[in-house]
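Fresh eyes needed here. I'd like your take on this protein's tokenised backbone:
***
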Amino acid sequence: MKALKVVAVSGTLVALSFGGAWAQDVKKDVQDIREDRQDIRKDVRDVQQDRRDLRQDRRQLYRDRKAGDKDAVKKDIKDVREDRQDIRKDVRDLHQDRRELRHDLHPKRAEDRK
């Protein structure tokens, strides 16, 4: 009888320890998903701002070309190129963050792809 109690108590302790570990994993996964969503929102804002900057620089380029200011045109062309690079970089980050979120939400699918 004493041995049965020891086995029952140890089994309960093992079950509780696994349950606690599982709860920690779930908490960590939820936090990871939350952070991925925050990253996505930040990247979307960055892309939107970069597109606004690009539109503004294109308007300025058009005005400078119309005015015949060659030095300003060179500067504006450089600004437009930098804006395009920023957009590409931010879009790439956005895709990466969405991929990470998808892997966090569907870990079984991610394991199947490996």
Summary: The helical segments are 2-67, 70-105, 107-113. DSSP finds three helices and no strands in the chain. The radius of gyration is 27 Å. The first helix runs from residue 2 to 67.
